[in-house]
Amino acid sequence: MADITWADSPEEESAHEPVAQGGGLNMKFLIGGILILAAVVILVVAGTLTSGRFFITVEELVNRPELVGETVQTSGVVLGDTIRFQEDPMELHFTIAHISDDTAQIEDEGGLAQALHVAASDASRARVPVVVEGMPMPDLLQHEAQAILTGYMGADGVFHATDLMLKCPTRYDEAVPEQAG
Question: Do both 119 and 41 map to the same domain?
Answer without folding.
Answer: no
